[in-house]
Amino acid sequence: MPINQPSNQIKLTNVSLVRLKKAKKRFEIACYKNKVLEWRSGIETDLDNVLQINSVFLNVSKGQTAPSADLAKAFGEKTPVNDIILEILRKGELQVGEKERQAQLERVHNEVIGIVASKLVDPKTKRVYTTGMIEKALDMLSSQGSQAQQDKPATTENATGTSTAGEEGESKPKSVHHAWTGVVATKSAKSQALDAMKALIASQPIPVARARMRLRVTCPTSILKHAAKRHDATHVDGEEKTHGTVKDHILSYIEQVETQDVVGTEWEVTGFVEPGAFKGLGDFIGSETKGQGRVEVLDMAVTHED
Q1: I need a surface site. Which of 65, 165, 170, 223 has the fewest CB within 10 A?
Q2: What is the CATH T-level fold of the domain 99-147+178-210, as seen in this structure?
Q3: Rounded to two decimals, what is the model's pTM?
Q4: Domain 213-232+240-299: CATH class, spelled out
Q5: Where are the domains of the chain?
Q6: Which UniProt keywords apply (predicted)?
């Protein structure tokens, strides 16, 4: 006696699912692990390397493909299957297994710690910390943040609407707090590393500072003695007040001068600058020299290693 099997059933294993709900139906496509995010970020462009099978399912785990009538109702009668798959791939929710989710979180965590460790130094010795020390410092901030939330005092409002705490009538100004609650898999490692550095610098669980940038600034000697018109210059009687020479102003951005010399008609200075001052220096050079001067980055983060 022949065994009848549904002709629309396909068995697939070890897949990542992308799921999209539309017209009260749930549609799924079966993809190779780790390929969906690569496709969405533009790293992978070949759909054959992303899709396990070029079909749309109602339920991948049961091997139940989506009937043509359901696809037509949800996506339009004349919409090709490939266009439907692309829409699900773009807009659908990626279903990730627990093991894969943990592995992805661990990858992002290690990347964040690595970035932070390469950008922060001991402010006195300028030496980098090990990734283990950075990880412990961030763990301290996480636990402190949780404890602070629990111990947060109740606030009341006075007659003027000002929030107060502690002694009666004493107003507590709001302060900017860079909280750190740990790494998540849904944000980029770079943005989370930036948040982690801000939190570490603000709270100082261990002494840290941003590693300085090493720059070379070149400027025509004919401009050096000109009066510098700063971006925040004040106006007196309709005239712009200047603040020293162009050379003085350039040197004010440089925390430590390494070398300076005159080569032909150009003055060249190499030195160390705090990352936060880099944009201001670049803007100043651009406006004051009208494109004749330039700023070159020699090292994004100068550190000393044991």
Answers
A1: 170
A2: Arc Repressor Mutant, subunit A (1.10.10)
A3: 0.57
A4: alpha beta
A5: 16-95, 99-147+178-210, 213-232+240-299
A6: Cytoplasm, Nucleus, Ribosome biogenesis
